[in-house]
Amino acid sequence: PMSASRLASSPLRSGSRPDSTRRRSRGVTIMEVLIAATLLSFVVLGAVASVSRGMNLTNHARMITLASQVLQSSVEDLRLKNYAVIQAYAAAAQPVDFTSSINTELLGSEFTRTMSLQARFTTLHPSSATELGLTALEITLTWQEAGVPFTRSARTYFAEKGLSDYIYVGF
């Protein structure tokens, strides 16, 4: 059995706290604050970097979509032309510059100001009395994002008496 003097001096009996509890109640040390601040700064910087990268990727996706739309619009515009116009483009110096068509086709915007549109026409079969003409087109759109060049291309063919001539003859 414990003596009365030992019971009175026991930390649990006298109402005082154990050493580990006493140390925790004093507060947070400066080292703990520094570690927490460092970890928090890593988390915040990582979040900011992720948001920034996400915005760059979104802008790039927008530019790729816009480039595809400009290419498609240019090909459709050329398809509406008579085959004689396509032959004239094929006879001209290559590549043919269509950059000005970006603004005239109501595609001009802040996003398209760095775009350049070039087309190469190649006569595969010249028109003759026995054979219809066939011309290949490779149209290339280039632009820059933050000084980095990007390119998208499309390839199609124009045939004499094809879609373009059908539209003009049919109406």
Which secondary structure elements does this structure contain, and how are they paired or packed?
Blueprint: H1 4-9, H2 19-25, H3 30-79, H4 83-91, E1 96-97, H5 99-104, E2 116-125, E3 134-145, E4 148-159, H6 163-170
Please provide a written account of the structure.
- Strands 1-2-3-4 form a four-stranded antiparallel β-sheet.
- β3 (134-145) and β4 (148-159) form a beta hairpin.
- The chain has helices at residues 4-9, 19-25, 30-79, 83-91, 99-104, 163-170, and strands at 96-97, 116-125, 134-145, 148-159.
- The chain is of the alpha+beta class.
- Helices cover 50% and strands 21% of the residues.
Estimated helix fraction: 40-55%
**Shape assignment:** rod-shaped
- Overall mean pLDDT: 82
Number of helices: 6
Largest sheet: number of strands, sense, barrel closure: 4 strands, antiparallel
| Oligomer classification | single chain
Order of SSEs: HHHHEHEEEH
| Uncertain ranges | 165-171
Main sheet: which strands, in order across? 1-2-3-4
Question: Which structural class do the helices and strands define?
Answer: alpha+beta
Let me know the number of strands: 4
Keywords:
21% strand; 171 residues; alpha+beta; 6 helices; four-stranded antiparallel β-sheet; disordered C terminus
Quick synopsis:
The protein has six helices and four strands; from the N terminus they run ααααβαβββα. It has helices at residues 4-9, 19-25, 30-79, 83-91, 99-104, 163-170, and strands at residues 96-97, 116-125, 134-145, 148-159.
